[in-house]
Automatic annotation (TrEMBL):
<dbReference type="InterPro" id="IPR029063">
    <property type="entry name" value="SAM-dependent_MTases_sf"/>
</dbReference>
<protein>
    <recommendedName>
        <fullName>Methyltransferase domain-containing protein</fullName>
    </recommendedName>
</protein>
């Protein structure tokens, strides 16, 4: 049996319990309205991150041709079953790596809720490129992001010793390293019925995640190229929704595959 990468295994640990135990997460209400307005009946639509079942349901309710992408096979399967999604619309893909050719430029709309917060600093450029390359010419990429630390980051950091804090927060890289979580009991978030050792192993397995400011993300998107920002909507829960459009090629033009 192939051993899963630590991050993928971490998400498979919580799998369907992420939403079946009463925790649905998902975007802020202010962003739900914007996402709904972007969804078009019959249009190929990719939700990247199987845990965000609320966005997948919204796409189904809008009559869009929903596809779900994730790098963790367990949570992808659980979400697909919960949504009643045909197997050929479930894609085991890590967008920080090489995209399958069949998915490149396929989607009228690509959406992801706080996915970029789960990338390491090293993975961020590749992850943004992968998301961009899923989008069809003239299509839209809509991403929510939390700038700065999560509440759980502060909660965990404050419960650590100074030596542990130096391992947990790496300001030189702008990363939180959840792998530094100690074995002793410290306050951890509770999602539905997930708690205790499972939650600790899940968070620890997520490893390094980038924490950045708005200007840093927008600069990374600008450096990537191929996307024009059309909107940025901030919500009261501390997240922001960035809406980006991939320009349609004029006859005779070619995209630079950078």
């Amino acid at each position: 049996m192939t051993r899963l990468p630590a991050k993928a295994h971490a998400w498979d640990l919580v799998s369907g319990s992420y939403w079946n135990s009463g925790y649905y997460g998902g975007p802020a209400p202010e962003h739900d309205v914007v996402f709904a307005g972007l969804m078009v009946a019959g249009a190929p639509t990719a939700v990247v991150g199987a845990s965000t079942v609320s966005l997948s349901r919204a796409a189904q309710d809008a009559g869009a041709e929903l596809h779900v992408l994730d790098f963790a096979p367990g949570i992808l399967w659980e979400a697909g079953e919960w949504l009643g999604l045909p197997k050929d619309r479930r894609h085991l893909v890590d967008v920080t790596g090489e995209l399958p050719e069949r998915l490149r430029g396929r989607y009228h709309l690509v959406v992801a809720d706080r996915l970029v917060n789960r990338f390491s600093a090293a993975d961020l450029p590749g992850g943004l490129r992968g998301l961009r390359d899923l989008v069809a010419e003239g299509g839209t990429l809509a991403l929510t992001v939390r700038f700065g630390w999560y509440d759980r980051d502060r909660q965990i950091h404050d419960a650590l010793t100074p030596a542990e804090q130096r391992l947990f927060w790496r300001p030189d890289a702008g990363e939180i390293d959840y792998a530094a979580l100690p074995d002793r009991d410290i306050p951890l978030p509770t999602w539905g019925g997930i708690s205790g050792r499972v939650m600790r192993d899940h968070i620890r397995g997520r490893g390094r995640e980038a924490r950045f400011h708005k200007d840093e993300l927008l600069a990374a998107i600008a450096d990537l190229g191929g996307l024009d920002r059309t909107d940025l909507v901030e919500a009261t829960n501390g997240t922001a929704l960035v809406v980006l459009r991939k320009a349609a090629l004029r006859k005779g033009e070619h995209h630079d595959p950078a």
